[in-house]
What we know:
Oligomer: heterodimer
Low-confidence stretches of chain A: none
Number of helices of chain B: 17
CATH topology of chain A: Fumarate Reductase Cytochrome B subunit
Low-confidence stretches of chain B: 1-5, 7-24
Shape of chain A: elongated
Distance between the termini of chain A: 13 Å
Distance between the termini of chain B: 105 Å
Strand order of the largest sheet of chain A: 1-4
Mean pLDDT of chain B: 87
Largest sheet of chain A: 2 strands, antiparallel
Structural class of chain B: mainly alpha
Strand content of chain B: under 5%
Helix content of chain B: 40-55%
Radius of gyration of chain B: 28 Å
Largest sheet of chain B: none
Radius of gyration of chain A: 20 Å
Largest interface: A-B, 32 and 39 residues
Amino acid sequence: MSADREYLISPWIRVWHWTNALLILILGVTGISVHFADPALMLVEFSLAVRLHNIAGVTLVAAYLFFVVANIVSGNWWQFVPKPPGILQRLIAQGRWYSFGIFRGEPSPHLVTKEQHFNVLQALTYWNVMYLLMPTVIISGLVYLYPEFAPDKLFGFDGLLPIAMLHYLTAAAILLFMLSHIYLGTTGKTVGAMFRTMFTGWHEHE
Amino acid sequence: MKRLGRFLIASLVLSALAAPAAAQDKPAALISPEQLARIRAGNDECFACHSPAGITHPTKPDLDLKRLRGLLRDADAFYGSDHQRLSCTKCHNEGYDEHPHAADAREMTSTCADCHDKTASAVGKQFDQSVHARNLADTFTCTTCHDPHLMRLAAKLADPHKIVAQDNRVCLGCHDSDETFAKFAPEKKTRPLIDEIHDWLPNARAHWQAVRCVECHTPAVATNEPISHQILDKNKAEKKCVSCHSADSSLKTRLYRHLVSEEHQRLGFANSVILANSYVVGATRHVLIDTLLMIAFGAMLVGLLAHGIGRIVARLRQRKNNER
């Protein structure tokens, strides 16, 4: 493997990734517009925001189902599983690199290979985001879309309250992840290298 | 004169939509249990014919059952209404004592304004500006909307779901029924399809379960004033979602006006008095959680920015060192 670059990311992953990114952006902006609705704030107009949010939400359900099925069929799900031995040590090493090593110009402790695209921190984070936060936000969103499936009343409040709060908090966690994900995308060989990888499929080795 | 009478009837019954302030113009005298029993015994004579039982078991052989069928009342519903302590003959007075009733008995029936005079005059001015007065001045009366045998004041119903069910049944009774709409509408006027004209409103049917038509189809009024009877058409009705879906929700001065004193920000939720019935996105927020999340996002952005600046500075230093 002498080449500086290696083909890693299948077309379906790249198409799904950018579709998902666009949907999360639309859902984030419209979700914020609806939750923080205020006549004095410059947000997306409420009824438009609701419609866009519903359309993007349903599309996200389809995109997510595709992601899960394609992951199983292609075996790509294995990438999300941190492999022993030394998971904890590699986790610490990766954390240290993001906190200190990166400022000293040290190379990342994780070597990207065909078998292991993600470092341990990425694998753990992505696993939690894709298999914990995403299903939660999607299922709570679907109940929100069809509130007849929500309990009628709960502890003296409308039964939709816990669903809505779960949806809101999970969505906030996903958006927080998105911010860090976009930023950490600049930590490749060059600032734009990882973004290019997600478009072309070719990874540039450090 | 006849038109004025109709209007006064209309304005009176419309007042039932209004808030507590517009309740009884003439305070009802206290009635003893004995008096009430006497009133109800008298009413039972009326209900003996004017009820479903009156059709199945006619009390007299010469009754025009076909006509009677259109004049039936539900005694249980009446005794749950605001007029529950009144005898039928309070309004259906002269000419109704005997059967067959006098030929002009119907014309002698009391108008709403006979009791609710102050309300009728205040409501009348609002009604004059309403879409109903503009298009249906000849046919529209208080009782077109407010059945005096059924209606309850919002404050007395208290439960927002019951208020919504009662009041929307009135509006949708005509506006969601070709048959009833045709009875009132001017000739050639076809009924606009209710779902179509509300297609701009997300989850329209869910809204009609949770709020009244008049939340949007009446102009804003102060909390201490009754909800206006100036029913607005679709061009003038409220279309800004944020008037309800915001922290300062107008639902507090509309559907929830009689409950607003019970607002205690339960468990830290703004507009928790609404939250007891409906989660209204934008209005029923948790102030502390919102603030904490905004801090989290701010911290994340500052952290990432600081990290990025740190990398740039480190890179520049390295480059300088390499040049040396």
